[in-house]
Design a protein that fits this description.
alpha/beta; TIM Barrel; 8 helices; 7 strands
Length: 244
């Protein structure tokens, strides 16, 4: 199995991206991408005062409906692109705000950003457990990942707790080409642990414009450097299962 072309971290005009979902989809088709995920921002922290976010249920519903329309377009035109519904949650947001607005059964991928300490792990764990207690999510639960994760916050303390968290909830680690310092060779120990424990990895570029949707080559190179191709293939298999 050769590695497909994917970008699972893309922003649109629903948050701070410069292009519509439709424009992104048509560009991804032209570029020959195999998998993309739209992951607009969700926050009520400091970030929401600086950028537009998916800040209410009506906006989220419009967002998901537009992605559905684009999925139907891809199917009708018999294109090879696979389009998924995602969201990037700022974990500085309040727990009640997230629980009220984010219904995980409606998404294929939920990315968490700004995980920097053990308190953050506990916060995400509590969210996941709350979601899982909701019977609406029993038949469909999204893939979960860490957006542009910085390993340096856990290299000196909390590394084993982090690893246990990743394994327990099948958390994906994103190789984000907009943050190459986060997969620097100085974190080789961390990435060796990912390989040993079968932690899935993904690729994204935090795209905010059509011009850089395909800018993921650096991430691919480092996945190959750390011998994480099988971890990426496991993610691809999980995405394929979500199409059924």
């Amino acid at each position: 199995m050769s590695l497909p072309k994917l970008n699972l971290h893309i922003h649109t005009t629903y948050s701070d991206g410069k292009n519509t979902i439709n424009q992104i989809v048509k560009t991804a088709i032209k570029l020959g991408l195999d998998y993309i995920c739209i992951t607009d921002h969700f926050s009520n922290s400091w970030k929401s005062k600086i950028i537009s976010t998916l800040n209410n249920l009506d906006k989220i519903e419009r967002y998901l409906e537009e992605i559905s329309h684009c999925q139907a377009y891809i199917l009708k035109k018999n294109k090879k692109l696979n389009l998924f519904k995602g969201v990037e949650i700022d974990i500085s947001s309040s727990e009640n705000y997230i629980i009220h607005n984010i219904h995980p059964n409606k998404f294929d991928l939920i990315l968490f950003e700004y995980l920097e300490n053990l308190e953050g792990i506990a916060f995400i764990k509590n969210l996941i457990e709350t979601w899982k207690r909701d019977r609406r999510n029993s038949n469909k639960f999204p893939l979960l990942g860490l957006a542009h994760f910085d390993p340096s916050f856990f290299m000196l303390s909390g590394f084993d707790v982090l690893l246990g968290f990743l394994k327990q909830y099948n958390i994906i680690i994103e190789f984000n080409s907009s943050y190459p310092r986060f997969y620097s060779r100085k974190y080789e120990t961390f990435f060796n642990k990912l390989k040993k424990n079968g932690i899935m990895v993904s690729i994204g570029c935090d795209s905010h414009h059509l011009s850089n949707i395909k800018d993921v080559e650096g991430a691919y190179e480092m996945i190959k450097y750390y011998n994480l191709e099988d971890n990426l293939k496991n993610l691809i298999n999980s995405l394929e299962m979500r199409k059924n």
